[in-house]
Amino acid sequence: MRIGIDLGGSKIEIIALDDSGATLARRRVATPAGDYDGTVRAILGLVDGLEAELGERGTVGIATPGAVSTRTGLMKNSNSTVLNGRPLDRDIAVALARPVRMENDANCFALSEAVDGAAAGAAVAFGVILGTGVGGGLVVERRVITGRNRIAGEWGHNPLPWPRDDERPGAACYCGKAGCVETFLSGSGFARSYRAIAGVEASAEEIARTAGQGEAAARACLELYCDRLARSLAIVVDIVDPDVVVLGGGLSNIEALYDDLPARVARYAFSDALDTRIVRAVHGDSSGVRGAAWLWPQRQA
Ligand SMILES: [Zn+2]
User: Fold this and answer.
1) Ligand 1 midpoint to CA 213 (Å)
2) In the chain, where are the structural domains located?
3) How far does the centroid of ligand 1 lie from the alpha carbon of residue 210, in Å?
4) From 3.30.420.40, 3.90.320.10, 3.40.718.10, 3.40.50.970, which CATH number describes the 2-104 domain?
5) Domain 118-281 fold
6) Which of 11, 91, 109, 120 is the right S-S partner for 287, CB 3.0 to 4.6 Å?
7) How far is the CA of 182 from the centre of ligand 1 (A)?
8) 140 CB-contact burial (10 Å; exposed 0-12 / middle 13-18 / buried 19+)
9) Is 137 helix (H, G, I), strand (E, B) or coil?
10) Please, how many CA atoms are within 13 Å of residue 77, restricted to the half-sphere of its CB?
11) The whole model's pTM is what?
12) pLDDT by residue (tens digit) across 89-135?
């Protein structure tokens, strides 16, 4: 049995999967906000409860925002700031009395989709999260490529490729630079570009909906978003050339994106032809917790 835990800013979710990926049980509790020890205790309580209910002990994988610093072994880059600077994986391993595996949520998303989601069967899958932030994860033969510095796939903080004059220098990003892919492709980036075109505020959902009804500014905004996404993905294709690109996060639900995207990526990528599949995630919000469970790989049949 594999146990996956998705540690989010507002909720902690736990799932138990059998060898086929079927869900044996799942639960969620509110994250003890701002309380590090309480967070570790909540995870312990969830694992104990699930194992008592199922009468079985499992491997444990954890999806977190942020990553473990290779320099200090402590958490970094987490928007749940109470985790930063703490040895989260070791503290959980001690609490659970077993080794645990931990990866950032974008890597878990990509792994989940590569194991039994939209990229199942693909040798090389690139998973993209388009939401509050923009993240990415690279999975090769069902294994997450974390990279030497644990930043493999962190594509959201590259500059937007082939910027137009009015896209330079771009909005300031929390990472300290400006014009990052994330500042254009996150939900707030999408809303910002609509504000620039239409002069009024609208949420990402509203823009997508009114674009579908033919509203000119919303359509222009969506087209621009699609083009920026295509430029950003073309760089990934040029470097990694994945078999499948899986889109997840709130903005991946915009159906219209998928019509135009492959042709636009093909226009920018350095290739005469492009048959990369670009698909929507099938596990939706469950990808993080499922991918965490799959951090302990399947035994080879
Ligand atoms: Zn940035």
Assistant:
1) 33
2) 2-104, 118-281
3) 29
4) 3.30.420.40
5) Nucleotidyltransferase; domain 5 (3.30.420)
6) 109
7) 6
8) middle
9) strand
10) 20
11) 0.94
12) 999 999 999 999 999 999 999 999 999 999 999 999 999 999 988 99
